[in-house]
User: Fold Extra-large guanine nucleotide-binding protein 1-like from Cucurbita maxima.
Amino acid sequence: MVRILKKFFQEKPASPVNDEDFSAECSFAVEYTGPGINYEIPRAVPINVDDIPTASLVVSSSQFGDDLSSLPVIQPIFKKLKRGSNSIPNSVCLGANKEDNGKDECNINSCDGIGSSGELENFYEQRGRLESLEIKSEEDFQGYTNSSDSESEESGRSSSSGIFAVREGEEEDDEETQPRHGRRPSSVTFLDTHSSQFEDESIQEMPRAERKGKKGSCYYCLKGNRFTEKEVCLVCGAKYCFECVIRAMGSMPEGRKCISCIGFRIDESRRENLGKVSKVLKRLLTDSEVKRTMLREKGCEVNQLPARLVYVNGVRLSHQELLMLQSCRKPPKNLKPGRYWYDKVSGFWGKEGRGPSQIVSFQLEVGGGMKRDVSNGDTNVCINNREITKQELRILKMAGVPCEGRPSFWVSADGSYREEGMNNQGKIWDKTRTKLACALFSLPIPSNSAPSGEEIVDKASYVCPELKPIHKLLLVGHKNSGTSTIFKQAKLIYKVPFSDDERRSIKFLIQRKLYWYLSILLEGRERFEEEILMDEKNKKPVNDPSTSSASGNEDPLERKTTYSLGLKLKGFADWLLQVVASGNFEIIFPAATRVYTQLVEELLKDEAFQATYSRRHELEMLPSVATYFLDQAVDISSTEYDPSHKDILYAEGISSCNSLINMEFSFPESRQDSYLDPPYEHDSSLRYQLIRVHHSTLGGNCKWLEMFEDMNIILFCVALTDYDEFDEDDNGVLANRMMVSKQLFESIVTHRASRGKNFLLILNKFDLFEEKIIQVPLDQCAWFHDFNSMMATNSGGGSSSDTNPAFAQRAFQYIAVKFKRLFSSLTDKKLFVSQTTGMKAENVNAALRFAREIIKWQVDKPNLSVTEISNASVDASSSFT
Ligand SMILES: Nc1nc2c(ncn2[C@@H]2O[C@H](COP(=O)(O)OP(=O)(O)OP(=O)(O)O)[C@@H](O)[C@H]2O)c(=O)[nH]1
Ligand SMILES: [Mg+2]
Assistant:
């Protein structure tokens, strides 16, 4: 991270950046203004300050020389400003002043090292002269830096706003001193919606776009005029030209919103544009992409109409009421925030103070009771206790309904009426001319097929026609244990098709990962290049006359090595690394894939890249599966890319989010079951459900496990190869992955929801384990410290006489026994174990069949010795390897 940041600092801004340009990012982000070289790259990449360790912000003038104008514009960073350490500079205060474009006012030294009170004052002084700052007063500033102050509503930036106060509970130590930064860098300012027409204390502050360029210009590149076709952000209203839409909106996970507006609800005045495709989008995306984007735009939760903004008969709707209203057979069309009246008897619906505009499903229990004057009628004639408007009265007269006196009618949904206390009855809309008149006055007409009361679809009471008993298998494991591979493998084996959404999601995942792998390689390339330059420098005699004059002034960065890229590819590489550092990688990719396909192709052919690629095994961050995808990089980055089954299986996951995934399947008839002695019949019509829960979804202490109380079996997946691998825990401490797996296993086994449940331990990645075990001793993991001695006692040494597979088999048995003992120490049940290679279909099939047997045996023969089953099954599934 530090290195990447340094690189930013070394870049020169492409063009002078005007004040407004950086005031936009103020206080949330460091903004890097890209090199703007001769191909398209986003001009500005915002960096989330929260993602940058403070140490990496430590810069001193010596690193850059005194000419600060060569720096990109960097906004003041408030992160950890009041941490109070004098030795570590907490913040860097750089910026440009209107008068002198940042030369003097942007004095790093004077701002660096803020922490002591004197320096803080100095900072305030500096801040006073930085006219682009959004924070204008000390109170404002305190509001950002002091958590208790930030709860104050006065500034309109309360900690609960969701904009300034995020990551609650994080970094507790810093709670008092941490400025509350935004969820993501924002190029917008915020409007307090208390000024909006719907007063509600819980309404989010809404971002609103600020125009930086001239009228009609694109909000991103500032080019164009009012005739330029543009796409509008549904939240803040920023308008982007064709070239900038993807840069500004990324992959549009919630439809047309700027990246900084994702997560915000849309501006209600733009609701009618929701899901309506624009010309720009049609030109920009393929048909299917447009369709998906529009579906997301219309369907995503945050874009839904908030129930609290809809009033029916004077009462604010609850979420359920709104849901009922929207999911009934005839929902109100174009429902927007507002106050409506609803006649439950006839289904007539209108805006408060006006006549009926449409007829919706009747008898919906939504809103309050309808008042007589709700449609502002002044005719003394009532329908269902509502005084009707003059136009409605005309229709009644036209239909021949006697309206003398002050009649009150009951009108039902099919249009039949009956006068209260009288015998007058009939149908209002029978005659064509009545219908025509209604059309003329824009009054609704009941449909001919009169709805019955049963038409109302109440989602809550909807019952599936036939509920077959289903056996549920919960698949869970620590990070990287292979659960998603097993899940995908199961889909392929049991022929449960991947839905279009899943395929698309996997496609995007692969495309995104491709750029991730490239970034790892490009960072490796930099390292290799620096190593060579450093080597050369060290080898060079101190007073070598041959180098003193010509190369004495030579910038080491200008030197070419095997790993040096040309200007264009270097620019791309730098940009990609910046994107990774900025934390915006997931937003920019895969949306930006199409823009860079050509460059990726060039990069792959480049000699420097090839040289790096040949040393890929030195890059620890690069997963082994990367080679598989990098080999088909050009195909993958194309828009038409359609992942093969193998690609799907090898992809690192199923979707980009770690959501719960599940599939229903049946085991096909198979003779293979006869491996069990005695063979038994299985009912192929039985249904099973495999549910993969990502460990992060289980929550702290696996608290969400309770949601899965009706599981028949828990499949706990462990990567055998984890024994010498480490992960950083939440506190940045390295933890052995096998030990973390063990802890997760213990938490799940001892959880209240798992009481009495069957467990099948899937010891996965046996293929990789076989290779690793001969190179890395198993006792690298503290838990397996007695492995070698046990092997020596049991088999006279083990490794020297064993073949690889046999040795790996023993190691596997040893690990299995370790888990079994642990399990029996925690419960009075026995643990079943399966040896698996997730990549092998037959292995996964065997493991899942074994799970089925355990469920079945438990049901049919609860007294059968579990040890017996366990042994049979371990042999059975491992026999497929
Ligand atoms: N060689 C080999 N690779 C495997 C096996 N199982 C999984 N992998 C790879 O290991 C990586 C992690 O597997 P996943 O299935 O994504 O693991 P996960 O449990 O979903 O992990 P997270 O998504 O990180 O929680 C992927 O790159 C898989 O391709 C296996 O049995 N053999
Ligand atoms: Mg995964």
Remarks:
- The chain has a mean pLDDT of 71.
- The pocket of guanosine-5'-triphosphate (ligand 1) is lined by residues 477, 479-485, 623, 625, 650, 652-653, 694, 764-765, 767-768, 837-839 (CB under 6 Å).
